[in-house]
Amino acid sequence: MTRLTAPKMSPAESPRALRRRPWWMAAAALLLAACTSVPLPRWPDATQPAAAGPIGAAAASRSTPSATPLPVQVTPIATAPSGAAVAPYGPAVAARFPDPAIVYSTPGLAPGRTSFTSNVEIRTWLRDLAEQSARAAGPKAAVLSLGSSQRGEPLEALIVTQASSTDAATVLAAARPTVLLIGQQHGNEPAGSEALLVVARELVQGLLQPLLDHINVIIVPRANPDGAAANQRVTANGIDMNRDHLLLKTPEARALAKLARDYRPMVIVDAHEYTVAGRYLQKFGAIQRFDALLQYATTANLPEFVTKASEEWFREPIVAALKEQSLSSEWYYTTSTNPDDKLVSMGGTQPDTERNVGGLENAVSLLIETRGVGIGRLHIQRRVHTDVTAITSVLNSTARRANDLLQLRSYVEREVSAKACNEEAVIEAAPTPTRHDLVMLDPQTGLDRTITVDWNSALQLRALKSRMRPCGYLLSAASTVAVDRLRLLGVPVMQITEPGSVLGESYQETARSTGARQDVRGTIADSPPVTKVVVDLVRGVVDAPRGSYYVPVNQPLGSLALAALEPDTQSSYFANHLLDGLQSTMRVMTAPSLTLQDAP
What we know:
The chain is an alpha+beta fold. 29% of the residues lie in helices and 26% in strands. The two termini are 42 Å apart.
């Protein structure tokens, strides 16, 4: 097996030292020199002045923006009558999580409220903010219609920008990084949704508004309105939509894919909540300790410098911002639903979650999880405060690094494109087993308890299967479902208008089985059996009939195309029956001479 690890650094090459000098490696410079004369960006000095001042949640309560905002309503919240009853621990644990000094106000956080903000209330909130922006000078906000959920609920986002218009072409032309904030993909994880309503208000009329001189922000407060209405993790048809961002079987995931395709965010934040007790109490006799669990994209074939930016420009500042607010954090981790399995794993490495697909789209893609599942409304102000603090840090980091992010995106897109035809790609990867000291809480005393666990690290991936990256893929004329999904993700697809031939590789099946898709928690919700194959590659001249499709890999989303079209992985379009048979896909191994047009 080949292990995918970052090169070992000498002290002079440590992340701290990298901030003091240009961070681009000589090999990267040689690659770019062969493609373009555009200079590489520097890794900025951490001490340089920020593009926008640090606006954290606590700072927001003390700071005054340059332009006087409309008044921000702050109201107290009464503890929900059911709050204490649902607590799976005693007062000593609860005392470890006091309410913040700031009190947040949304419909779902109103005094005496026992339910969270409804779908109708979210729509009203977004429209009110858009109307307020229309009446005032400064940034403009507009509600974007993304489609409908499975039960007919509107899927909507709020865009806030200083661009002259909120349509995608105008926003992209303004050349500012766009941040996409997503809440409540899992319907029983409400704190992110409530926090995003607060963030939306502060961007339109409050203390975050100055950041819009440097960035655009798109907010999807509730990506799974059906699940939220039913207080269930999955969508109406029982699918875990956060495992559906490559296959796009649900209208909810397709709506997010189209939004990302059109607005091309450079930073994505996916806000979730994690189980506080449940299987952790069962397996370890302890309670989850941390206010926030954090992770960025960790899947095969990610651009190295996107990972570096995710860590140094974003995760490290989030950790510092949380610490300043006396909020604790750790890497994201989870464990399976099997009570006898005590393995603890970081977030998955499959290219199917929003976090990992966002990384393959060359964005800094971040997961923020607060402690919330299984405790109802308990500590809701603290949970919202955690999200607001972390998200505000992300917005501030994006504003501060705006120019560097633009240069990073430009470089990475060329780097990914240049890998086609001549570099090896990882087809399947796995985390690295290790041991980890995990700090948890005693459920009775509330004291820290350190437990050494078997730990799957997603920060170092092991390559289980690799092969040469093709120049592109031929798809049969019948592959219309796969073509539609690829185009929805933004992957360019061409149609062959005149028959031809290319040097290619076909897949020869040597073994086959069926099974369910798996993640680190176990079987993925509502996952029908997938086809698992073992293949050999057979090289030869391949016919390219008229009407068939060509998917180039020498383009910025080449690694995303590879994740979808290499058949022998559980996430592939073949394994999940979006392509009919191995003969539907051929690997093209030289630049083709074909007559092509954009696929209709």
